[in-house]
Amino acid sequence: MSKNMVIMLTGLLAVMLVGCAAPRITLFSDASDPLREVTLEGTADDKILLIPVTGIITDSPKSRIMRTMPGVVQEVVSHLRLAEKDDRVKAVLFKIDTPGGTATASDILYHEIVAFKQRTGKKVVVCMMNLATSGGYYVSLPADVIVAHPTTVTGSIGVIMIRPQVSGLMEKIGVDVRVNKSGENKDMGSPFRPVTPTEENMLQNLADTLGRRFVDLVKRHRQLDDKRLATVADARVFLADDAVAMGLVDKIGYLQDAIAAARELAALDADARVVAYRRTEYPDDNLYNTLTNGSQADPTPLVDMGPIGDLFSLDAGFYYLWPQALGSP
Questions:
Q1: pTM value?
Q2: For residue 188, what are the CA distances in angstroms to 180, 201, 316?
Q3: What is the mean pLDDT of residues 264-273?
Q4: For 119-133, how does the pLDDT look when each residue is reduced to its tens digit (9 = 90+)?
Q5: Among 112, 121, 59, 51, which Cα is nearest to 79's?
Q6: Catalytic residue among 29, 106, 134, 190
Q7: 32, 181, 186, 251: which one is catalytic?
Q8: Is 219 assigned a catalytic role?
Q9: Rounded to the nearest 10 degrees, what angle do helices 103-120 and 72-85 cross at?
């Protein structure tokens, strides 16, 4: 056996013996990696923090091949906590690109942003990209200024309850589900049987209540008159020009215009730094990078169903969501 081979085997044996003492090798960044600040532009001491809000708004972590990624709520709140501790962060700019998400996750983010502003006095600006519908608009409401990209789609102010219904298919294939329940409405909304008229009324009342909460928040933050409020309350979507006319958006512009608005609100110099928090270092990083963790691209799924796959992955429940953005019929 050659001398080099002996050295190689000795090293391998040493690694095996130390076992748990060996350093952890991470192939892909995940939620366990700490957030680190990177500068995207500017050189001054004071900062504007850029936080992306993308994809379905949920408080559940995202599972990927060989790793787990933080959910949207977890990641955004982590950013806000770091910004709160940094006196040099004078403003936060949310880059919104989402059709919405669960009612509770959207409401959590709304509450966290409101509380962040109350505790710190820092300014908040929203820049809407492709989509800022339903829950995406809900979390934008606390902003001091809302800027929409010229081609943004926003609105869809309302709630939708998504529940599968397979009772017809089960009848065709001769499958049945037996249920023993302690109360008449215990299996209300079950996918295994048709909904009764009474149950339909109950579910609609729940949806109406959550919808009114959304509309009331829009009225509080955007101070719409009754006519405009009635128009947006039917959950239609708007392009940027119409959103400005309806009072849902303050101005139309690009990401740099939103940064300029944040600088003006916080009385910052023109060279104030724009920073982001990342779990991974990216070469040629810039304002349009929406990734905060993970490798430069997610591992390719075994079966990629595209946006409609996101719709099929949703659990039954109430959503501040524009489902058409996910490819629903």
A1: 0.80
A2: 13, 11, 12
A3: 96
A4: 999 999 999 999 999
A5: 51
A6: 134
A7: 186
A8: no
A9: 0
